[in-house]
Amino acid sequence: MSLGNIKTYPNNSRVAKAQIAAAYNGLTFDVENCEIAAIKTPEYLAKFPMGKVPLFESEKVNLFESSAIAYYAAVQKEDTTLLGATAVEKALVMQYIFFAENELVANISNWMLPLMNIYPYMKPNVDAATEKTKRALDVLNKVLLDKTYLVGESVTLADIAVVTAISNAFKLLLDKPLRDQYKNVTRYFTTLIGKEHFKTYLPEADKLCETPLKYVAPKKEKKETKKQEAAPKKEKKQEAAQDDIPKPAPKPKSKLDLLPPSKFIMDEWKRMYSNNDSDVAMKWFWENHDAEGYSLWKVDYKYNDELTLVFMSNNLIGGFFARLEMARKYAFGSLVVCGENNNNTISGYFLIRGQEVPFEVYDAADYGSYNFVKIEPSQYEEKKDEIYKYMAWENEGFADGKIFK
Ligand SMILES: N[C@@H](CCC(=O)N[C@@H](CS)C(=O)NCC(=O)O)C(=O)O
């Protein structure tokens, strides 16, 4: 018997959750694939104000939230075993339904969807979501050490919620080395998806991930990042138009090599900085600085409010610097993390050959995550103290930092 109609996009694991629960009670849903736009009409929004799928329509009730739809299926049979036998079991089933939704689905989505270019890609968010997913999987792994099912001795809605929640991760994110870190979860997952109703509604779940998703920047986004640069824009756009053709190796010569010679020798500055106290180094810096040949830039990470652990913020700087390899000859920078875990910022200063942010810098994948604001020579006096603190790592709240040299 069908309980009613579910509207969704195809292969939605949230719908599988409801369908599996229904199947255990000998019930079904009529499932209709639809465009999201089709449920944003006034008629649908009146019934389903969230305007999200899956949605469930029936004569008795209209429901949104997939766990509620699954619960509705589970609760249909009076003697169902899906919801736990005792008060304790019932509470545990609820615990895992919420755990699946809040700790698994939410974090797996924030890890997976940016890699699929469905959500905007921001590396710190993806890194944080990855860590949060791993934390939850770790917990699950411990819980499942000596259990076949999460609650009691047979399948409950807890298992249905958790297995459907992790199905996309097993398909797209968790390759063999990662699965090996969560052996109990993997054993549990493969056992459950081998069961009849899981097999019916998660037919592809046994295709475990071989190569995990990796972020590939969409071409358009790359071009936008480069919008900030004035002079070399046209040339870059033409290159970008041919993006499908494998790119030739980058030209060895930089435009920066064609600038008039400068009295300020970058290598000498880097040696000064590395081998002397900040007082000596900065004195040398200002005595030798060539404001025509080089420019100074205040750099601020754009998504400071999304940073989490200090060491992760510092790793982020490390990642940016690693991708600035081409700029090593032409730039020097100090970026620092100030603050504490879950409340920190990344900022600093860069010294760059020429008067613009050059290709060698703006081509780095993470450049778009930073604001580069030029400090004009007229501002040097007022900024000297701040620049000193960034170079000497004496900023208030300094927690960690990296030097690009
Ligand atoms: N917690 C909800 C999440 C539903 C949800 O986020 N649906 C997305 C697709 S996966 C959606 O319809 N988004 C359309 C929108 O945000 O307008 C559930 O489990 O049903």
Question: Your description of this structure?
Answer:
The protein is an alpha+beta fold and 405 residues long. It has two domains: 2-201, Up-down Bundle (Glutathione S-transferase Yfyf (Class Pi), Chain A, domain 2); 254-404, Alpha-Beta Plaits (2-Layer Sandwich), CATH 3.30.70.1010. Helix content is 45%, strand content 15%. The chain contains 16 helices and nine strands. The protein has helices at 13-24, 42-47, 66-74, 87-115, 123-143, 157-172, 176-181, 183-193, 196-201, 219-226, 233-241, 266-275, 278-288, 310-322, 359-362, 380-392, and strands spanning 2-8, 28-33, 55-57, 63-64, 294-301, 331-340, 343-353, 370-375, 398-404. The protein has a five-stranded antiparallel sheet, sandwiched between helices. It is elongated. The model is unreliable at 221-227 and 230-251 (pLDDT under 50). Glutathione binds at residues 14, 36, 51-54, 65-66. Glutathione binds next to loops. InterPro entries: EF-GSTs, EF1B_G_C, EF1B_G_C_sf, Glutathione-S-Trfase_C-like, Glutathione-S-Trfase_C_sf, Glutathione_S-Trfase, Glutathione_S-Trfase_N, GST_C. This is Elongation factor 1-gamma. Residues 219-259 are annotated as: Disordered.
The small molecules bound here are: glutathione
Over the alpha carbons, how many angstroms does the gyration radius reach? 28 Å
Strand order of the largest sheet: 8-5-7-6-9
As a percent range, the share of strand residues is: 5-15%
| Architecture (CATH level 2) name of the largest domain | Up-down Bundle
- Please trace the helix and strand order, writing H or E for each element: EHEHEEHHHHHHHHHHHEHEEHEHE
Number of domains: 2
Largest sheet: 5 strands, antiparallel
Oligomer: single chain
GO molecular function, one term: translation elongation factor activity
InterPro entries: EF-GSTs, EF1B_G_C, EF1B_G_C_sf, Glutathione-S-Trfase_C-like, Glutathione-S-Trfase_C_sf, Glutathione_S-Trfase, Glutathione_S-Trfase_N, GST_C
Domain GST N-terminal: 2-81
Biased composition (Basic and acidic residues): 219-246
